[in-house]
Predict the 3D structure of the following.
Amino acid sequence: MRAVKFTGAAVVAVIIVIALLLVVGIPSGFLTSTIASRVEQASGYRLSIDGTTKISLWPTLNVALSDLTLQNPKDRSGITRLTIERVQVDMSLSSAWSGRPKISEIVVTHPVLYLPMLRDRLPNADASPAALAPDMDGATIDRFKISNGEVAFSRVRDRVDSRITAINADAIMGRDRTIKVTGTARISEHPTRFDIKATTPAPPVERQTTPVDFVIDMPDVLSSQLAGHAELRLNGPMVMINGVNGTLGDGAFNGWASVDIASKPLVKVDLDFQRLTIPLAKSPEGATAQPWSDAPIDVSGLNYVDAQIRISANEAIIGQARLAPLALDAKLAGGILKTGTANLGAYGGQVSGEMILDATSGAPSFAMHSDIVGVRALPLLQGLAEFDRVDGKMQAKLALRSAGPSQRALMANMQGTAFVTFQDGAIRGINVAQMIRSLTTSKLSGWQDSEAGSTEQSTDLSQLSASFRIDKGQAVTTDFNLVGPLVRITGAGTIALDTKMLGFRVEPKLVMTTEGQGRTSEPVGFGIPVMISGSWSQPQIYPDMSGMMDNPDAAYAKLREMGKGLFGPDGAGLGNMLSNLGGNFGLGGAAPGGGNAAGSANPQMKLPGPDSPLGQAIGNMIQQGLSNSPLSTPPGTGIRSRGLPGTPTTPAPQASPAPPTQAPSTQAQPTQDQPTQDPPVAQQDSQPMNDVMRQLFNR
């Protein structure tokens, strides 16, 4: 890169300064102009010395210069420059007198290399001086050290300033032209350690191959140590890196690369890995309940480099997910990154897609589309997103786009469509059928997971599918469908991506036999729609009674169907239902008169009355729905609810069904001559509730 070339020029300039000092002798202030002139003549770079120049002769010859600035005279902006706080050189006095100086050490303190950041590549922009081929005249250097160096990338117009800081390097040069460099630095706040060994050719180095061995360790970025070998060759502004091979962890790789540093850097990379490991940061405990981050996402650096990258791997491990094979192509130009893959193998299926990231404006935007076919969902979702609830063969089509400077903004601006289906799998850790049955007694809070996160409970599914239309972060579906051996759920709802909230209205059905769906008994409805609303991790699940009260006639019809929905036609499924609930409600008694209490044709089945335990449970559920309904009216007010027809104030000519009493076995049978009167309403009851119970149980 330009930084390598510029740094080499700086080193040569420092050596020339030292040689001049040795030739001239003890320096004084008037010699600085002479030194600067000789440096520019030999290297093409302009040197200014604004500090002091000192020489010490004891115990060794020591030369020290301070406040140096080295610039390219063809750079009118003045941005490209090297500043050095202090340079110190140690050598033996005898070698200096002999005319072949043997420099034992050069220490450069706080050098800062300033490089501009360009948004566009400029034609014929190689304004670098001619290649350097200094004549060292027999001088040798044993050690070169950099202390607290920096590389500053800046663009004043965009107010961008990025730095590589805390550069500490120690280079040892051997007599056979070998150079060993070890050091540390911080790249974008990521600590980095590097170890480089190279054999330099005899001058001039232009178009000659330099073999380089390297080891790079970046614990925050790379999963393991990167080690390899390459052959470096300079050709004007082009840096060619051929014969690249090495290892990343336990995976070998090979390929080539090149960097054009004429103006805006153009990087080309083609690498093939046996195994590529890309770690993903694990979410903290309870992260699903935490809001999206408002921390800014900075991708502005994509504007200042162009790239063409191809990465292939026999096996890629991303997070905990294993993908094989991998073939990824990426092109970065003008701040727009396009990546795509046409043949990505994943757990028995295939993934293809493309993503476009636009970093040209202050708020980055992206668009993507992807097709997933026949992939086993559990290991893929668990490895990439730490989601382990659903297993099965997954098929999905995604077309999404968004823009925003943070996670929350990206989610709030999300638009597009998504379709996903899972087949022949299971919902892990949740028993959906048991959840539905639990709704007959109370509202549920949360997904009713197994204890201690165990996945022993599960719900087998034949298919789980839904399609979503997403607008401004709201994902809406009208065709949610879950089909399992013992449960079927259809519904519609909305998922708020920005707030991690959801609201669904579903119609659950249960299979009351062990034969499963499609046999002699079809799934029977719960009878009442179920609402699922709240946060993703802890939603509230409850019957939608208020929605039923909007239309009284339909409400009565729904409540009558509720008996069939819960207990099967004519109550035939009640025994199975109660067996699943583990209760004993004294079924099997015949109603007086030879029929059952509900008027069923089944003489052996009597539906429970409101005073039975199951009847009370259903009554509590309905009472809770009525109390939450805006159409309900507190008891004792004398005002009838607009959502329910009121009870006549005078008895009808025909006897009405008597309400349940505390008698355990029989009830007084009214006659036509003695119409019955409703008993006084208890304080905790409501008149609409009594009407509902009469209609529900036909009493």
